[in-house]
Design goal:
The strands form four sheets. The protein has a three-stranded mixed beta sheet. A three-stranded mixed beta sheet has the order 8-9-10. A two-stranded antiparallel sheet has the order 4-5. By secondary structure, it is an alpha/beta fold.
Length: about 210
């Protein structure tokens, strides 16, 4: 995201969007996509076809909708609640939480060695859900491609869309992210509600009026 050097009213999507995108192909298996989002600590990503055209978005809602109503693992003990279904309690090791995902697949994992010299992977945030679709059992997700589960009816804008129009579209559609595409419908960035709030905050810091005049 670029620093806001222009007045707030003159900012566009190009000024505030994040360019470091995680892109998913519409033929990527859902399980593979889930692991990719976990590694990048994001809850959703644009989906593209073989021509790199934007065709949809895979979000936390799509994962939760897929597992909603399904079997859930047994609850953790009340005195040590775990927030993620990829965690497993280790009562014999200081009541710490182990991560059942492969090593290196989650950003908050920590390699550990127990008293017997055996290596295991600990969860660094055992009581926090840092990705809001961790309710899904990744290895129990379907093997079908992302294209079968993504949301197709999404809001897109050009890089020249004014920031006030971005905010209005988010409010009208009850969404928190908008994909920015070029003339070929290729994703070039993404604007979140946090990006817009950040621009407003920076304007306030330099004393620029941010409300109606």
């Amino acid at each position: 995201m670029r620093p806001a050097f222009k007045p707030l009213a003159r900012l566009t999507a190009d000024d505030v969007m994040s360019r470091d995108l995680v892109l998913l192909s519409d033929d990527t298996p859902l399980r593979e996509a889930a692991h990719l989002l976990i590694r990048n600590q994001v809850s959703g990503a644009p989906v593209i076809d073989r021509y790199r055209r934007f065709v949809g978005i895979l979000s936390s809602f799509d994962f939760v909708r897929r597992v909603e109503g399904g079997d859930r693992p047994a609850s953790a003990p009340a005195d040590d609640p775990l927030a993620c279904h990829h965690q497993a309690s280790r009562p014999g090791d200081g009541n710490r939480a182990a991560c059942t995902l492969p090593a290196g697949s989650c950003a908050v994992q920590h390699g550990q060695t127990d008293a017997t010299g055996q290596s295991w992977v600990a969860c660094g945030q055992p009581h926090q859900m840092f990705v809001d679709w961790q309710v899904a059992e990744v290895d129990a997700l379907p093997t079908e491609a992302v294209g079968h589960f993504m949301t197709r009816d999404v809001v897109t804008v050009s890089r020249f869309t004014p920031i006030r129009e971005l905010a209005r579209r988010m409010v009208d559609a009850h969404i928190h992210r908008i994909v920015v595409t070029d003339d070929d419908n290729t994703p070039v960035g993404i604007v979140t509600s946090t990006d817009i709030l950040g621009a407003v905050a920076r304007s306030a810091e330099v004393g620029e009026p941010v409300g109606p005049t």
